Ribonuclease P protein subunit p29 (Octopus sinensis), 229 residues
Amino acid sequence: MSKSSTEHPYLPLPKEVLAKETELNILSQKDLQENFLANFLAQTVENPSHTLEIITEDQKIQSRWVDWRTQRHLTKSKHHKKTLSSKLRKQLKIFHIQPEVQKFHNFLPLHKLWKQYMKQLIQFENISPNNLMAVNLKVLKADYHGCYLTVSKSKCPSYVGTTGIVLMETKNIFKIITKDDKFKCIPKKNSVFCFSLDAYCFTLYGNHMKVKASERSHRKFKTKSTIDL
């Protein structure tokens, strides 16, 4: 062996060797890379073609499985989007109403819209003794943002007689703006509310309404006996 081939073992083969490549059965680097698996199986397995088909089929199944898992993960991520927590919403003051906006006359258009909404919902012209239960259920599930609400009874005497337009409703509280531009929070618990619409007066028992407004519309309510305060 020459000195140059010893110092540089990865040099290309000499021309005289390459000329006899076919006779010496020498494979090029490209052939080695492409046929490595087939050549390996040919030397170690009795039926390499069958084994190669099995391995190829397994690779296809594995590829389909990976694609299915990826697609499933993407679908889940679309349906399960992260939402702001209640604590973070309070910190960001998303539902905070600025003091300079807390004027009764600013929310009169909201009250007019609410009256139109309730008239379409209840359909007063169709009320009869036969459908009072259905009307009561509609009133219970209705949205009260914009309602002109009055506290008729409460275990806390200072709340009784408070009247105003509902600006915000949570699970346990009605937030209203009064005629003298005062923003008040009235608890639903142990309070009775009333509102008038056309010739009808409706009474709401706060103990039965301790549900978020967004959940109340599609919730099934059970019949409960009402104990007056």
